[in-house]
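cron nightly-structures :: item 1 of 1
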Amino acid sequence: MSDKAFNTQLWLVCQIIMLTFCVPQLFAQDSSEPAGPQCAVLELFIRNDCADCPEVQQRLEAYAKKRGRISLHVHNLDEPGKHVDRYQQILKYFQLQDAELPVAYGCNSLLRKLKPDTSTDERIDKLLTVDIYVRSGCSRCAAAKVFLKGLKQRYPVFEYTLHDVVSDSAAGTRVHELADRYGKQAVSVPVFHFCNQLVVGWISDQYTGSKIEEVLKFWTTTCPKPEKSDNKQSILQQPDHSQLQFVSFQSEPDLDSPIPKTNDDPVPLSPVPKNNSSLGPPPVGDNDSLPPIPGGDASLPPPPGDVPPPLEGEPLAPVPSQAMDTIEVPFLGELSKSRLGMPAFTFLIGLVDGFNPCAMWVLLFLLSLLVNLKNRAKVLAVAGTFVLISGMAYYAFMAAWLNVFKLIGYLPMVQFLLGLFAVLIGLIHIKDFFAFKKGISLSIPDWAKPGLYARARKIVNAENLAGAILGASILAVLVNFIELLCTAGLPALYTEVLTMQNYPDWKTYAYLGLYILAYMLDDSIMVTIVVITMGRHKLQENQGRWLKLFSGVVILLLGLVLIFKPSLLH
């Protein structure tokens, strides 16, 4: 066989192999995505002796026809059929012996005691709403919004509503209420509330996006072509141009455009399933699965499993969370969803703040006097008290900053002004390195130093240890008041950044505690060295200048980030 003929045969074999493996992939439908636009599945349970049932049925049929893309199934429990068993399984899941009819079931929710008025429309509207909580400047929120554009095309029956937790304080409050309701220990935007579930955070389209779409697909069915309905089932569908509100996505190419504030929805939430699974109620086993509903649709979601949610309107039972403050990460499973950089950021900023020449100057002066006592126990007691009380006073000072930001809210103007304030303080500190105490300076003023010297000497000359400790406590508080301007920059910046994280109160104040531990670390090390060596040392002007330069550069950089790229601090 010639080389040319062999090459020709080899080429043909390669082409056949390529066609064998590639052509099916080209025509195959991705099982993870729906074949076409999806319709929401809604089941209505009625009885002949139910006074409101006929009118509610008519209202729901009219609602479904007007809204479009709703597959409505009406079950009369007085007529025999498997739908009676289905209804009992649903009641069992929701821990109910019975429910006052008419009852609607769909999207992982059970709506009881429907009325033939607008309240029913409002409850169904809420059922078919995907609430997304975001904030401006959030890169993950922007990525989620891009994904939601495609999701709207595949699931147009749902109303996708954006809520900005920064510009709308009610939305921020709502997020924390939802976190408590669904047993989440901490939340970070974006947050998705839909189908009686809460999905927190955003990793990628392939992970978080697929997780959201999996839930929506579970509670919907592919919209069939319009057809006549019978007494058991009506498939009501509108053309693609049916009106669907999608806040902020209608014609805006800029997905970070302002989001209008919304009032709290008066419609109560449905009960929360205890298992809080990613797919809502799990399907029943093969032995218990129900046959198709008479008249036709085998694609109805199966009734839920045996783990019941609390009843609507009653206190929620404790939800066993999988782990404290966790998220699921592809391949790695569950990891802490606290921002892994926040503890290190807190510690480093607190450490930098601790290296300020104001408090350090007073402490070193006090230690230089205490070593004359030649008593390590007294040096440790007095100097340790000074450091401890300084930390406690500083904690109170930072908590005050924190509550100011919580009171006024996280507003772009506040963020900008704080950034300017930080830049100004940073430049003054840097100026002090080159021109110490010339012009504006953020140091302990000369007029205050004689009083501090006198108080420090009184502490050393106190007749008993209790008097010395009391004097050290008073001195620590006075120093913190005097040095407010010297240290205001970093605490103000840090508490603003901490407010931006939307942590629960306990976690927020715990981070303040970590900050204070770092703030006190350098002072504690100095006290330890003096106690061990019993040596004396005063802070020299040259050393103070370098500390000023170091803290000034850090404050200046943080201020610039807060002005030009605040998203880096989230």
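cron nightly-structures :: done
The radius of gyration is 33 Å.
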